[in-house]
Amino acid sequence: MAAMKAYQLVARQQPPELRDVRVPEPGPGQVLVRIGGAGACHSDLHLMEWPEGTMPFELPFTLGHENAGWIEALGPGVESWRSGDPVAVYGPWGCGRCRECRQSRETLCERQSVLGAYGGGLGRDGGMAEYMLVPDARLLVGLGDLDPRDAAPLTDAALTPYHAIKRSLHLLGPGSTAAVIGVGGLGHMAVQILRALTPARIVAVDVASDKLRLAREVGAHEVVESGAGATEALRELTGGLGAQVVLDFVGADATMALAAQSVRMGGDVAIVGLAGGVLQYQFGAVAFDATITIPYWGTAIELMEVLELARQGTIRAHVEHFSLDHVDQAYARMREGSLDGRAVVCPNG
Fold first, then answer.
1. Tens-of-pLDDT digits for all 349 residues of the chain?
2. Same domain, residue pair 289 and 321
């Protein structure tokens, strides 16, 4: 049986290991993908640090839930794809047959609690390996002329903000303002998506000058340094009213408080980041009729729309490539906050 390298989580609260594992063979309805790129995500760090008894996943499994590559082999019964086709892997894997899954909302799968995993890289083997087994051909979306090495982050770092922004499009007409807190892997995509889908003025907020510079490069109209005075600055930019939509891609105590204080009456706050913050929610915590949501990933149809924006050249993920042998460096750079956009591991060069 052929072997390959895979970056696997093998024990709770222990660093992942680069291990030799067998190359899987696709069964009926399954597809083997040769991985071009696997995005490294902050949620992977949370998986590495999850305390004993709290992670719902069985170990070991291969990390990497943002994946794109080329079809290597087809299992029996798969007729909609051909060997060599460039594909993106839709990340959330539901049961495929419940009401939500049938509507392309596999993030809301009614049987998720009994599946034991959320998808490849989240309880099942993901893409930080030379090959990845996709359990159902329905989970693949064609890339067209997009390079899998650059397109991998579109499956999460772009899809998640796209989903969050689409929920609030009705608020983002001419004269509106959208605030993006945190201009990292997801935030820099959110700025581009807002420019592509809305006429809103975009205000980017971050603690780092290089991130604010990136925000301007990808389309932000205004930038605000996070910290003391950020709320006042956002209020001043909106005539004292606040932003119609505030997207928090950090999720710390301070950023959640900033988001709640910066939204205008009737607006939306979306908490996307996983920093573990807590927002004290009570009467007066946010403006009247403002809504706080926790959007999660997106639908397969929305992924198709994201990829079309990328093919048109409207959005582009800023990526830094790492070999599989240097995957630890990608996560170290993520921890120190020195990445320019998103880290992508390229197991096949």
1. 599 999 999 988 899 999 999 999 999 999 999 999 999 999 999 899 877 666 678 899 999 999 999 999 999 999 999 999 999 999 999 999 999 999 999 999 999 888 888 999 999 999 999 999 999 999 999 999 999 999 999 999 999 999 999 999 999 999 999 999 999 999 999 999 999 999 999 999 999 999 999 999 999 999 999 999 999 999 999 999 999 999 999 999 999 999 999 999 999 999 999 999 999 889 999 999 999 999 999 999 999 999 999 999 999 999 999 999 999 999 999 999 899 889 999 999 8
2. no
* Residue ending a domain, choose from 255, 275, 293: 293
Q: Which domain holds residue 327?
A: 3-156+298-346
DSSP string for 87-145: EEE------SSSHHHHTT-GGG-TTHHHHS-SEETBEE--SSBSEEEES-GGGEEE-TT
A 10 A CB-CB count for 66 gives 33
The answer to whether the beta carbons of residues 261 and 241 sit under 8 Å apart is no
Q: Which of 293, 309, 327 is the last residue of a domain?
A: 293
